[in-house]
Each structure stands twice: as structure tokens, then as C-alpha cells.
Automatic annotation (TrEMBL):
PANTHER family, per database record: COPPER HOMEOSTASIS PROTEIN CUTC, COPPER HOMEOSTASIS PROTEIN CUTC HOMOLOG
Entry superkingdom: Bacteria
Cell compartments where the protein resides: Cytoplasm
Family matches, as Pfam families: CutC (PF03932)
Biological source species: Frischella perrara
Matching NCBIfam families: PRK11572.1 (NF008603)
Gene Ontology CC: one annotated term: cytoplasm
Designated gene of the protein: cutC
One annotated GO molecular function: copper ion binding
Main location: cytoplasm
Keywords, sorted A to Z: Cytoplasm
Family: Belongs to the CutC family.
Protein name, per record: PF03932 family protein CutC
Length: 242
């Protein structure tokens, strides 16, 4: 049983490691659902030499998963950077305009990622045909699939997750989005062995002066509210898995 924690800062990576995480998905861009971390973060984190796998996401922008050739080139270069910094794996996904798996570009990305563990991320959850997509990912040799069962959270998608788990061959099914201590045993009961969670919590900004008349974000988030991970939640999930 392995628990992967999604982290958006190096401080959170350290906190997750200290509280029992088995693996880290490392991202920037929380409001976009995860973007490729900066070179500075990737370099700094690699120098910590933490003894658990850390898999940076390779995603050049938010929004859909239909990428231009320039964006694919960026992803290839980011994979090369991650390899050179000795990370053990990556997370990516891309689709065609018709909603099917973009096999041609995935083959390019997999070739660049040889020797790395590869997770296909929740681009899967907006693909046209999940059963066909899983078959293709099995044939491509992707190591694991992160999915909420094509629903807004994994608890609502558990029936598809169970179906995918029964059909899996080389690609391990890992539920994510909304996985918490309150429901993780439901996924354990259907035979799942790896779990993805942000274990998130929010807390007030330490800024003493706060001007609420100005926002730097287009989606009008509260910029004096910060998000991190809950160490107690990680500990509780680990205890339930053990």
C-alpha cells in the first residue's frame, strides 16, 4: 500500500515526507490543477536527496490537454531537465482534439522518459473512451494511471475505478481527487494498492497589512488565504493503509 501526496511547495514536500508519504507528486500552479515546477524549485528539491520517489508533473499550462508542437517541445525539454536532476519519475498526459489519447505525442514523451516511472495524469478523466484509453496506455507501457473515475471526485467515480482496476495489465490504477481518510478504505476494499491525495488544508496568510481592493488572480481567489497539507491527515491515511 503506497500513499502519494500532491505537493505544491518544497516546504510541503518536507512535511509530507516527515509524516509518512511514500511518494510525492511535485507541482506548481495549484489553481490550474498542477503545472511544471520552476527550475529553481526542481534544483533545490533535488539537492535535498529525500529517500522517497518524487515525480514532478510535466504540464506546460492549465486548461485542456491538446498541446501545440511548441508545448510538446517544452515538455520534452522539461523531461530532460528532470532526468538530469535525477528524479525517479514524471507525471504527464495529452489528448487529441477528439478526446482520445494522443498516442503519437505520448510515444515521444515516453521515449524521452526512458528509465523514469511514468504516471498518466487526470487528462484521462476528460478523455472520450476510458476503456479504450486504458487499453492504449497498457500497450504504451505507462506505469500508473491517476484518475477520479471521470467524475469530479474519486468517490463519485469509484465504479469506473473498480472496472478499470479489473481491466488493468501493466498500468496500475491510482485513484485521486477527494481521497481522504474518510473514504480511503472504500478504495482499499476494491483492491487498490496506491492512493493519491493532496491532504489539503487552508490557513490565513501571515501578512499583517492586507489590501482586499486589489487581486493579482484572474479567478478572484482570496490571496490572503494559503493552502498546504495536513500532516495529521497523512498520518491517519497511512495508519488506515497499514
Amino acid at each position: 500500500m503506497k500513499l502519494e501526496i500532491c505537493c505544491y511547495s518544497i516546504d510541503d514536500v518536507i512535511l509530507a515526507f516527515n509524516n509518512g508519504a511514500d511518494r510525492i507528486e511535485f507541482c506548481a500552479g495549484r489553481s490550474d490543477g498542477g503545472l511544471t515546477p520552476s527550475y529553481g524549485d526542481l534544483l533545490q528539491l533535488s539537492q535535498l536527496n529525500l529517500p522517497i520517489p518524487i515525480h514532478p508533473i510535466i504540464r506546460p499550462r492549465g486548461g485542456d490537454f491538446l498541446y501545440s508542437q511548441c508545448e510538446i517541445n517544452t515538455m520534452l525539454m522539461d523531461i530532460e531537465l528532470v532526468r538530469n536532476l535525477n528524479y525517479s519519475g514524471i507525471v504527464f498526459g495529452c489528448l487529441q482534439a477528439n478526446g482520445h489519447i494522443d498516442i503519437k505525442n505520448i510515444e515521444k514523451l515516453l521515449h524521452a522518459a526512458q528509465g523514469l516511472s511514468v504516471t498518466f495524469h487526470r487528462a484521462f478523466d476528460v478523455c472520450h473512451d476510458p476503456i479504450l484509453a486504458l487499453k492504449q496506455l497498457n500497450e504504451l507501457g505507462v506505469n500508473r494511471l491517476l484518475t477520479s473515475g471521470q467524475q469530479q471526485d474519486a468517490t463519485k467515480g469509484i465504479k469506473l475505478i473498480e472496472q478499470l482496476h479489473k481491466l488493468t495489465q501493466s498500468t496500475l490504477i491510482m485513484p485521486g481527487c477527494g481521497v481522504r481518510s474518510s473514504n480511503i478504505e472504500n478504495f482499499k476494499a476494491i483492491g487498490i494498492t496506491e492512493f493519491h491525495s493532496s491532504a489539503s488544508l487552508s490557513y490565513p496568510s501571515p501578512m499583517q497589512y492586507q489590501n482586499h481592493n486589489v487581486t493579482m488572480s484572474h479567478n478572484k481567489n482570496d490571496e490572503f488565504l494559503r493552502y498546504g497539507i495536513d500532516p495529521h491527515e497523512i498520518q491517519t491515511m497511512k495508519a488506515l493503509l497499514n
